[in-house]
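Q: What would this complex look like in 3D?
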Amino acid sequence: MKTRLSLGQQSALLSLALFGVILLIWQLATLPEAHTVAADVDPEYAALMGGGAAKSASSFPTPVEMGATLWEKLSDPFYDNGPNDKGIGIQLAYSIARVLAGFFLAAAVAIPLGFLIGSSRVFYDALDPYVQVLKPISPLAWMPLALYTIKDASMSSIFVIFICSLWPMLINTAHGVANVRKDWLDVSRTLEVNPLRKAFRVILPAAAPTILTGMRISMGIAWLVIVAAEMLVGGTGIGYFVWNEWNNLSITNVLFAILMIGVVGMALDSVFGVLSKRVAYQE
Amino acid sequence: MTDPNLSFLQVENLARVYPSPTGGGDVTVFDHVNFRIHKGEFVCVTGHSGCGKSTILNILAGLDTASAGNVFMDGREVSGPSLDRGVIFQGHALMPWLTVLENVSFAVKSRWMNWDKHKVRDHAMRYIELVGLKGAEQKKPSQLSGGMKQRVGIARAFSIEPKMLLMDEPFGALDALTRGVIQDELLKICAETQQTVFMITHDVDEAILLSDRIMLMSNGPHARIAEIINNTLPRPRERSAIHREPHYYPIRNHMVDFLVSRSKQFGALRDAADAPSSPAVFDPVDLIESESTVFSALPSGKPHIHLVNA
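A: Here is my prediction, written as structure tokens for the whole assembly.
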């Protein structure tokens, strides 16, 4: 007798199967090579090159080693043994704090400014060239300028997050505000709604889905950029951690950090997913 | 004090000119538009698309500005939107993120800013009940049918107790059955509240059922109010019975004839700028009187047609 699986169960099953396949390929790819040192190579030289090592052919971990590292790191995420040995939780917390600081600063500028450009054709046309030129600049290109003027590594990375989060929020807010249905504005005009009440009770809720989309894009970009920024400025944060572990040639830790970056990025995005649902409306 | 010689609403020499989309000369949509509306009167306007009906309504609402002419309401010139003039929009214009109650409350709160929550709520609920939507007040507009949405629009417009109500084809998007039901409700509410109404409609029967006077606009460009019909059908009116009234067919025929043929001729016959700016008034009472002397034997109904055309 066959029982039909629901769509959700089917995709969960497929997901699990895919996970199994990935683990299997990973395991096969990292199997220790049959250890044969070519006769014409000096054994000492081979050992130096890693070829003489009895274990894995490379420092790429097997799934089991990876699992062990995962367990070890996650069971004690907040230890602090000096600048080069901090728990993953602490590193992530530094990165998240910078991202949030830069992001909210950007929101505080972009949303009111977006309101202004969205509601005034003159402001829109006046600011559009600046936005068009500034938008395509890689946020990291600002880094030297930031370091030179701010003279503080951590503040500079916050500035870089600020500048990269600004544009999507600004453009989406302006777009959302400019496209509020004329009917709703006419209603508030005939009801003699004062400008402040109109902004908060009519324009903001009408543009909220578009603004939230902009915020979500900004957050995604900010999380991408923080890793690169922290690699540059060093000190603390997940980006620094990745670079530090690369210098230690600890591929396991690099892989671990990559996984964590993905998980945190997903969590940040899903927060905005929930918020988007809350402000969405159906016409 | 208000000048007793002024009507409640007075429109003088209104005109609207748009720059030509092709870059040539300007296009005058309508000009020399003059009419008056008395307090408590229900006036319908009809005419073909493009004659500027909606523009006139928007000027009355204060949402648009005239190129020339003036509008006075209650002795004061209309210069912008006001809570004194409630508007019912064609596309209901409800805010989809608010519930029915919140949509109406938003208007109530705009009108009486110092009212507390309970008072606003009670007032809004009264008008929601008036349009028969009690029980649906917590629903969002997307959960309502087209007819129900337009009822919320009506409740919202009435809830601010405006001195005048402006309606731009409020039932245009509804199916015939729903439209009938809502027309009956509107008739009832207007009778209760003695509301002054200016309404645009394309529906001949709707105009006859609801109005005290029907203004007929000629075709644009240079449209104007060509004729006015005094709707003499007695109130209260019943949809099921009005076609038996002796004045019903004369009015209806006069209106249909205008829309079919005279609306086009008007523009061609008149000499642009100095054409008569006061429209011809059609009153079925005169008609019936002349008819009763000449054709006293004729029954009322269809045979009026040839007279109307005369």
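A: To summarize the key features: Chain B has a mean pLDDT of 84. The two ends of chain B are 45 Å apart (CA to CA).
Q: Very helpful, thank you.
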